[in-house]
């Protein structure tokens, strides 16, 4: 059992282990499973993630409300033309993040990571890292434990719910989890992983939750796309040995306090931000009556 | 501080779009159906708060109907559950109501049977796919369906609690929590256990004196 990044850092140093090693050991004890059973359980999640992150690339997927859809395919098609500004990796990652978000909004199957709203970030980040770094499924599964461990720290010491802490708590947490895992999978140190997680949260601190019509669609899908990019660049900065001046545990605490300070209108109530714009209200009226 | 598993963070595997409005709704309805029992010809859903306001956009209606048809929160058939209910000749209705001081995501499910009285359950979806059932046929309860649970109704008399307890301990079950409420000399017991209840224990409890109703529910994966 651990509650803080500091504790994980200490154990990792003492026993010369990675974050995933420690989380896997903890889970074996917590759930009473064998190592193999635990790995297979996570493999199920990985398979669902792979599917959701690619399903909407080739075919247009529309949301139940009819408000959004088809953007994953648009970005994928645009990327294929080869004239993007930010390159194949970034565009592909955005398309994959959109894919899961669109599958989610169409009542398809996803893994909440850490929530359904932010479920596009991890699958896309992991598939992007797999391609770029030539990783195996087993590497990704280990990485998912790292991501889960970082998410646990945030859930324990702050929140992963948009209703409580705004979108920084959902898409910010997902990006932090992904960034830390990518760093580990890329061979970075435990310190590097937590630096990456700190950057991801720091970059979007204060991000509000203002879904149009209260539905998990817009701006959610956009924030999943920018969220995966946030994860990738945060990982890169950490691997370049840029250091977070403020340690991860303190960043998490700051995020929580910022979330608490957000007015209720900006915490999933659909009363502020984009939801409260004339267009947002019009969409809401059309869908919900 | 709550003790988490990584699967609480990376999970549930679910049908979108919302863990509280879709996955939690499906789970709530699925458990309610287990408690109420099969054979209903109609289910009326009374939606409260945010459930009432946004159920169409979130597919809460489809998730609830999927649940009463026995679908789990990750079942891709949830998308077409309304059609499935029609095929099975199960009548469905939705109504927006005010259930008073309850969680914003709350629903009252009324199961209607031809051969017995209506059965109703009130429950809330409290986030992340977690649920709590707060009322069964007028009895206040507090039941999260995370653990194997035994429901028991009996004519109130001394000794039932210890008789049930001793059956469980003889068969090596650990009781995690037990709550008994009484109304008009009928007692309702909700007992959560650490491991799945076996048929033998159920049979022994059923054979105790004055038992009116017994039902065991196993947890539904999140
Ligand atoms: S805007 Fe709100 S509902 Fe949408 S992803 Fe962010 S936190 Fe979730």
From TrEMBL, chain A:
The keyword Metal-binding applies. It catalyses: L-serine = pyruvate + NH4(+). Pfam families: SDH_alpha. Residues 16-275 form the Serine dehydratase-like alpha subunit domain. GO terms for biological process: gluconeogenesis. Its EC number is 4.3.1.17. Pathway: Carbohydrate biosynthesis; gluconeogenesis. It comes from the Bacteria. One of its GO terms (molecular function) is L-serine ammonia-lyase activity. Keywords: 4Fe-4S, Gluconeogenesis, Iron, Iron-sulfur, Lyase, Metal-binding. The keyword Iron applies. Its cofactor is [4Fe-4S] cluster. Belongs to the iron-sulfur dependent L-serine dehydratase family. NCBIfam families: sda_alpha. This is L-serine dehydratase. It comes from Tissierella creatinophila DSM 6911. The gene is sdhA.
UniProtKB/TrEMBL annotation, chain B:
Pathway: Carbohydrate biosynthesis; gluconeogenesis. The keyword Lyase applies. Its cofactor is [4Fe-4S] cluster. Residues 149-222 form the ACT domain. One of its GO terms (molecular function) is L-serine ammonia-lyase activity. Pfam families: ACT, SDH_beta. This is L-serine deaminase. It comes from Tissierella creatinophila DSM 6911. The lineage of its organism: Bacteria, Bacillati, Bacillota, Tissierellia, Tissierellales. The gene is sdhB.
